[in-house]
Amino acid sequence: MWLSRFLAVAIIVTGLGGCGFRPLYGETAADKDVPADFSAVAIAPIPDRVGQELRNYLLDMLTPRGRPRNPVYTLNVSLKESISDLAIDSSGLATRANLRLDATYSLVKDETGQSLVNGTSLAVSSYNLVTNDFSNLTAQNDARSRSALHIARQIRARLGAFFAKQQNAALGR
């Protein structure tokens, strides 16, 4: 029984390798440079507290060893936040809310000023509203942090795909 499962997994893995599937952050020779490309990205300051939080997440994900000494790219991000009430009880008070965070970003090559990657990212986080104002503020801040983390992960994935595509083009793939 276990032998047939092992063989099935081995066949699937072998088939994925043959079809050109490659993990974005893998350890193949071509993929080793994606983190190096990340470390060449300077992240411009982002206004407001949630912008600082998003920037810190991006710094941790793209340049965990510190700011680049000689950045080749600059990542510019702008944020827009909105909050909407979802559930209204019989007394007319909201009991649930959505925090929506919209990010617009652009990766610019410093040498030429050319925009290489433009995109938008959206994150929506829900939270409960209660009669205690401090609890509501804490829940809202948590929703804001979750949204910022989600957007940072999306931006990192899109930049990783861009750098991987650049490497493949340079290698003639």
3D structure, described in words:
The protein has 173 residues and is of the alpha+beta class. 18% of the residues are buried. It has a single domain, classed as Lipoprotein like domain (Double Stranded RNA Binding Domain, 2-Layer Sandwich), CATH 3.30.160.150. Helix 3 (48-62) packs parallel to helix 4. It is built from four helices and four strands. It is flat, with a radius of gyration of 21 Å.
Give a quick set of tags describing it.
alpha+beta; Double Stranded RNA Binding Domain; 4 helices
Protein topology:
Blueprint: H1 2-18, H2 33-38, E1 41-43, H3 48-62, E2 73-88, E3 94-109, E4 115-128, H4 133-170
Parallel strand pairs: 1-2
Antiparallel strand pairs: 2-3, 3-4
Strand content: 25-35%
Give, in order, the helices and strands: HHEHEEEH
Give the helix/strand class.
Answer: alpha+beta
Termini Cα gap = 40 Å
Q: What's the gist of this structure?
A:
By secondary structure, this protein is of the alpha+beta class. It is built from 4 helices and 4 strands, in the order ααβαβββα. It has a 4-stranded mixed sheet with strand order 1-2-3-4, covered by helices on one side.
